[in-house]
Amino acid sequence: AQSVTQLGSHVSVSEGALVLLRCNYSSSVPPYLFWYVQYPNQGLQLLLKYTTGATLVKGINGFEAEFKKSETSFHLTKPSAHMSDAAEYFCAVSGGYSTLTFGKGTMLLVSP
Amino acid sequence: NAGVTQTPKFQVLKTGQSMTLQCAQDMNHEYMSWYRQDPGMGLRLIHYSVGAGITDQGEVPNGYNVSRSTTEDFPLRLLSAAPSQTSVYFCASKVGRYYGYTFGSGTRLTVV
User: How do beta strands B10-13 and A73-78 pair?
Assistant: First the structure.
């Protein structure tokens, strides 16, 4: 079985501040982990993914995430938030299954 | 490449009506899935397919049917629409088991 928990349904930051979105996973086998972003009235877009190898992965738009096996975490960060980062973010896990299991999402709000 | 194309974008149904949500991809992806997105619930898997002629149930399959006669197409059929099926439906495809999905832009369905 596999599951994802995203801590915080809403996160608010000021423009220029650090963005930290938390994701913890459960998987019975070594996981593959993903972060997606969804802008209003659009589909989901892949931000970054961890499969094997380097535990710090870089994605699009300046985002990165670090896989920490001991903490079963895959938190998403960005050093400096921009207004255009306001969106909903989803963490997902594939523990060897044919599909992905998604978290419930975190809405990122960016204020000027 | 068009990617993943979903039609229609919007639909209103009366309770008890049936309809088919269309999904087509032109990337020759073997894996395809249907998810529904509801506020605060994240994305929940309805049905998925790992290749033409092969389908399986996901987390919330009741009230929905699928078939996969070709690699390109993966339609989702609502047998007898209910208000609980009011949701945004996303079709997604990927090239292999451990890859990320490419999502369509979604179908917003309202059942009255």
Answer: unpaired
* Contact yes or no for A14/A81 (Cβ under 8 A): yes
- Which residues pair with residue A42 across a beta bridge? none
Which residue do the tokens 């044919």 mark?
A98
Q: For the segment A46-105, what is each residue's pLDDT rounded down to a tens digit?
A: 999 998 888 899 999 999 999 999 999 999 999 999 999 999 999 999 866 678 899 999
- In Å, how far are A4, A8, A59, A82 from A12, measured between CA atoms? 21, 10, 21, 12
- Helix and strand tally (H, E) in chain B? 0, 11
The minimum CA-CA distance between A98 and chain B, rounded to whole Å, is 5
CA A12 to chain centre: 16
The per-residue pLDDT for range B18-31, each reduced to its tens digit, is 999 999 999 999 99
Contacting residues for A28 by C-beta, under 8 A, at least 6 apart = A1, A2, A95
Instruction: State the best of B9, B99, B107 to mutate against chain A, taking most chain A CBs within 10 Å.
Output: B99
